[in-house]
Amino acid sequence: MSGAATPISDFANRGLGWSIFLSILLILAGFFTLMIPSIGGIGITIFIGWAMIISGITHFVFAWHAHGAGAKLWEVLVGLVYLIAGFYLVFHPAYGLASLTLLLAFYLFFEGIFEIILFFQARARSGAVWILFDGIVTLILAWMIWSHWPSSSVWAIGTLVGISMLFSGFSRLMLSLAAKRVLKTI
């Protein structure tokens, strides 16, 4: 066993290397999802389906450990809903994608409404106009998805998730590179 301690900068450099690598993977995944949003949407649907299946199984485990008949029954019923929805998404991803796209349109509609309400509550503050702008853009996006549904299922979720992955990847990459520059000065 060596008596020399490993400096913290060695651990940080290794962590930053992984962070840079994963950031680049995220950028590439976002780019490919934007190039073929329908495939990205199907992949996201299947991922959500599997997450729901795991959640359903988790609820069954909670039911096993729950005290009282009402709590057990509730956990079993919730678990069944998760399992049925999850298996539906996994085994019928195209229909599941259409359902998720419609759900996304409703979500964006209500988010846009709430953003506009928030603007009217905060309009005296500096920069509040950006909240109004966000609300209007969100409402337009909701309308675009809803008015072209179900054909919008082909592009909506894949495109939005692809953009999110691309921007997340770039921001994490820039943060990691900035941290690397700081470590070099230490």
Would you mind describing this structure in some detail?
This protein has 186 residues and is mainly α. The protein has one domain (9-185). Helix content is 85%, strand content 0%. The protein has helices at residues 8-35, 37-65, 69-91, 93-122, 129-147, 156-185. Helix 1 packs antiparallel against helix 6, helix 2 crosses helix 4 (93-122) and helix 3 packs across helix 4. It is globular. The two termini are 27 Å apart. The model has no long low-confidence stretch (mean pLDDT 88).
What is the CA-CA span between the terminal residues? 27 Å
**Structural domain tally:** 1
Which stretches of 5+ consecutive residues score pLDDT under 50? none
Shape category: globular
